[in-house]
């Protein structure tokens, strides 16, 4: 079978790597792909913002399965467009992807279906803000309604700054584009967990849990990024917690979406805060997370393509998804300056030596091929990922591989997994 993957980051590289291991697959095409993906798939040019260009690629290639990586094409209705042409695609429709593309919709949905989440108010006009913030105690969380690549959440230390932040979202001063809705939310405290599951619209199957590190600096300091590293272990969740989250969060979400005639087929990514009053949903994503997917797929023992096809065909309850025991970790190497402005085009060396470290896969997030030379092409450049019997060993392997790699201005956090390591000491 030919598989077409849409996207260009580390997530898509990890997906291509996992797809390649499937016995069913004879060819992988990635649109647009990147320098690393090009080593295992045929990359074709495409614009992820342009649904028509993506449909043209798919119609030309006639793949047996299409996997959509990023949120933007999902929110623009790529799945609906591809299905309209009779193509087999893994991912939610535009209406189902609202769980990621509108925080206001999602908060109200969770309230309708009794899914645990922080208290909130949705404001559609600036003059509602004053009254809305009255019911919250600082710190107050102010969120843009729409997709904002991790930049749409502001933690405000007073009601006045919360109102100012919300005004900034409404006018477009903060994100460039004016928001039509702003969500004001209670500040939740605890550890964050990324709980991803597959869904066929009715059934859910959990993936291995993960914890990511969003801040740029060690000790979780400095500005938020797309993610600087992530790890996955069997012990990340207490015994029984997976079942609790499935029962109280993932299953009611899938059931609620089906009841509202917007069945959700794809990856439901539950961003959870493990608070004193139990897990609370911070956000849903409607796709594989990046970099979570790199660490999670390294632990997948069974066939990814078989699982994704079972979702499309509504028979997820009939297959078994197997995970390796132990742990995996992914450490991101980024360009100097990221998440602010950065330069690209620097030659990358040492990848062959890094790949020789046992248990290691280096996934490319932002790289490009310049003639014969691989160069940096993004803020997040590489995801050095390793699996092993324990988290300590997985991290040792990842950092050993990282030490082989060089490019000008390369930066990475040396404390990925620090919370879990503290727990095991
Ligand atoms: P979101 O895009 O909603 O997941 O928010 C991005 C990040 O902001 C989360 O991963 C949290 O670290 C933080 N955050 C979001 N909502 C809250 C909240 N209600 N309380 C505390 N932190 C939050």
Task: Describe the overall structure.
This protein has 425 residues and is of the alpha+beta class. It contains 14 helices and 22 strands. The protein has helices at 10-20, 51-61, 71-75, 78-84, 98-101, 103-112, 129-134, 159-171, 241-259, 292-298, 304-312, 351-355, 391-402, 418-424, and strands at residues 2-7, 27-32, 42-43, 65-68, 89-90, 120-123, 140-144, 153-156, 182-186, 191-200, 204-206, 211-212, 215-217, 221-224, 229-233, 265-275, 278-285, 327-334, 360-364, 367-370, 373-376, 380-388. A hairpin with an 8-residue loop joins strand 7 and strand 8 (153-156). Helix 1 (10-20) runs parallel beside helix 10. The longest helix is centred in the middle third of the chain and has 19 residues, at 241-259. The mean pLDDT is 94. The site of adenosine monophosphate (AMP) has 13 residues, from strand 7, strand 9 and strand 17.
């Amino acid at each position: 079978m030919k598989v077409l993957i849409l996207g260009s980051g580390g997530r898509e590289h990890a997906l291509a790597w996992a797809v390649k291991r499937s016995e069913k697959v004879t060819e992988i095409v990635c649109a647009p792909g990147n320098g690393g993906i090009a080593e295992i798939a045929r990359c074709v040019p495409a614009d992820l913002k342009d649904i028509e260009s993506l449909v043209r690629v798919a119609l030309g290639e006639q793949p047996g399965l299409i996997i959509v990586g990023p949120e933007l094409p999902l929110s623009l209705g790529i799945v609906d467009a591809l299905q309209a042409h009779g193509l087999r695609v893994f991912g939610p429709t535009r209406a189902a992807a609202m769980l990621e593309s509108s925080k206001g919709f999602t908060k109200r949905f969770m309230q309708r279906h009794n899914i645990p989440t922080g208290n909130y108010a949705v404001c559609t006009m600036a003059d509602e803000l004053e009254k809305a913030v009255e019911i919250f105690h600082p710190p107050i969380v102010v969120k843009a309604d729409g997709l904002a690549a991790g930049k749409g959440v502001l933690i405000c230390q007073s009601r006045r700054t919360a109102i100012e932040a919300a005004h900034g979202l409404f006018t477009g001063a903060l994100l460039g584009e004016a928001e039509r809705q702003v969500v004001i939310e209670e500040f939740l405290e605890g550890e964050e967990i990324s709980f991803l599951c597959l869904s066929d619209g009715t059934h859910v199957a959990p993936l291995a849990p993960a914890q990511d590190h969003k801040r740029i600096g060690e000790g979780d300091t400095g500005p938020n990024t797309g993610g600087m590293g992530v790890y996955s272990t069997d012990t990340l969740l207490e015994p029984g917690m997976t079942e609790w989250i499935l029962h109280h969060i993932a299953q009611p979400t899938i059931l609620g979406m089906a009841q509202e005639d917007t069945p959700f087929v794809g990856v439901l990514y539950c961003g959870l805060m493990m608070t004193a009053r139990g897990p609370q949903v911070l956000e849903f994503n409607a796709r594989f997370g990046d970099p979570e997917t790199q660490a999670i797929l390294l632990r997948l023992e069974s066939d990814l393509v078989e699982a994704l096809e079972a979702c499309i065909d509504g028979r997820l309850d009939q297959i078994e998804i197997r995970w390796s025991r132990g742990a995996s970790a992914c450490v991101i190497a980024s360009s100097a300056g990221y998440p602010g402005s950065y330069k690209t085009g620097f030659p990358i060396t040492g990848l062959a030596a890094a790949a020789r470290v046992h248990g290691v896969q280096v996934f490319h997030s932002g790289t490009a091929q310049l003639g014969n030379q691989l160069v940096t092409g993004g803020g997040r450049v590489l995801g050095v990922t390793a699996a092993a019997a324990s988290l300590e060993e997985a991290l040792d392997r990842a950092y050993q591989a990282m030490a082989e790699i060089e490019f000008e201005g390369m930066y990475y956090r040396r404390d990925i997994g620090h919370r879990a390591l503290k727990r095991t000491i």
